[in-house]
Amino acid sequence: MMGHQQVEQAALFYEFSLERHIPTNHLLRSIDRFVELGELRRELSAFYSTIGRPSIAPELMIRMLLVGYCFGIRSERRLCEEVHLNLAYRWFCRLGLDGDVPDHSTFSKNRHGRFRESNLLRRLFETILRRCIDQGLVGGESFAVDASLIKADANRQNGIEGEKGLPPQAAGRAIDEYLAVLDDAAFGAATETVPKFVSPADPAARWTGAHGGQAFFAYSTNYLIDVENAIIVDVEPTAAIRQAEVLAARRMIDNKNAATLRNRDRCHLCQVKISLKPRKEGDHEPALSP
């Protein structure tokens, strides 16, 4: 016999614990015991006013970003929706059942403001790397360099021919950032070749067809990876062209060598040298050797 759902009178009081609700083997439980953001406020204190309305807690924003990175939520608008609905995300972000989730615009505002000015995200990355080194997860003997294309938020249909240049009336934050890196060897000075198309919305992005399909505007994210446990030990963004990627590899190696010399007693990364010899026929990625 088909059963019926029992409709009962709503209880006046409920007892519910997020702590008991989240499984012990949930990924966020494993991560939470390693998340220490005690130094966050000290790093950012100089970038907040002493008067005015209280801001969104920076610890909350960092925890929400960690959720997005771990679960592949690339849209900050969707991230806010997911944290609002998902109990495990609420538990990890210390929001409880009725805590307010910040508006998605809070992230872009802080990314282009306090987080960039204080270099906060780089400091967090290096703190995590130091902990990996202390735990013996970084072998320091074998490295690999890899680059990934990141599609820019620029409509390919609105691109203009590179030889024509940007229109005189072009203005905005993206234009200012483009002009600031014109002489940077990782961006504007990486090559003298004029790009086929330029995006007025994001002129620092490079027109590329590297994926073999339809060309698009993109950046390149370059990673220096310790191959023993696939730990990323450095990262650098560049224009999406080969010359800039090779330069990024050199910079990351130089940075790690300098860090080793400064912290011989604490850093176990060996000094490495870079060779631009192809690893195999047809492969022009830089090869590394200890």
Task: Looking at this protein, list some descriptive labels.
4-stranded antiparallel β-sheet, alpha+beta, single chain, 14% strand, 290 residues
| Outline type | globular
Class inferred from helices and paired strands: alpha+beta
Biggest sheet overview: 4 strands, antiparallel
Strand content: 5-15%
The total tally of domains equals 2
Number of strands: 8
What distance lies between the first and last C-alpha atoms, to the nearest angstrom?
A: 73 Å
What level of helicity do the residues show? 25-40%
The number of helical elements comes to 11
**What order do the helices and strands follow?**
HHHHHHHHHEEHEEEEHEE
Rg from Cα: 23 Å
Let me know the average pLDDT.
79
Low-confidence region ranges:
264-268, 270-282, 284-290
Ordered list of secondary-structure elements with their pairings:
Elements: H1 18-21, H2 27-32, H3 40-44, H4 58-70, H5 76-85, H6 87-92, H7 105-111, H8 114-118, H9 120-134, E1 143-151, E2 160-161, H10 173-180, E3 197-198, E4 206-208, E5 216-226, E6 231-239, H11 242-262, E7 273-275, E8 287-289
Antiparallel strand pairs: 1-5, 2-3, 4-5, 5-6, 7-8
Helix pairs in contact: 4-5
